[in-house]
Amino acid sequence: MVTSSATALSASTARSLTSMAFEQLRADILTGELRPEERLRIQGLSERYKVGATAIREALSRLVTDGLVESEDQRGFCVAPVSVDELVDLTRTRIQVEQLALRQAVAQGDIDWESNLLSSFHRLSRSEAPSSPEKHAAWTTAHRQFHEAVLAGCRSPWLMRLCRLLYDKSERYRNVAERQPGSQVRDVDTEHRRLMDAAMARDAESACKVLEEHFWQTAEITLKAGFGGQATRKKLAR
């Protein structure tokens, strides 16, 4: 006879496996390891991540909800496609949402916000350029922490949740583009310093302008690298 405690333990283990599969799949999609429109076969993924088929199916269903995976009747799952139109729309939306959070952060941020912003910028500026998988992981973590630190003073959990979602979507595009030959190099350290300096100076207008320029430059480089030069002035009209 199966006890209630054994049943609870089994359910907990199943949730853990699903969560593990979800995080690994999500990371591989965001970094570009799993390419846009790539077929996601249950058996292959089960072998790749060393978890059962049930956990893989549940993880894929969660990723469908997040918009990173698509499901088609009779055809199974595939990585969600990317497109010029989506990236331009995503960039515009991200700018609007993050500028709202940034204005609130500049107005409401306290000494803890300032301290965290300074330390996160220092950590990012000391992180080596992502020239290898190990360095890429460390830089990506520092980069995310910096952008979150800029906005954290807004004191709005919902705004921060939206900003994290948009960040993830944007990172996927950037990572896919970086895997293309001839990706452009830019002085992101200076861009990040300008953003930090404007925020620390409590200059909301300047900070929002720097943020907008920073995101559009990323979008333009991503479009040129990832979409065969399809970035046009019309597409990038602001």
TrEMBL record:
Keywords noted in UniProt: DNA-binding, Transcription, Transcription regulation
Keyword DNA-binding found: yes
A GO term for molecular function: DNA binding
Coiled coil: none
Cytoplasm is among the record's keywords: no
Pfam families: FCD, GntR
Sequence ranges assigned to domain HTH gntR-type in this UniProt record: 15-82
Domain of life: Bacteria
InterPro entries per record: GntR_C, TF_FadR/GntR_C, Tscrpt_reg_HTH_GntR, WH-like_DNA-bd_sf, WH_DNA-bd_sf
Protein name stated in the entry: DNA-binding GntR family transcriptional regulator
Lineage: Bacteria, Pseudomonadati, Pseudomonadota, Betaproteobacteria, Burkholderiales
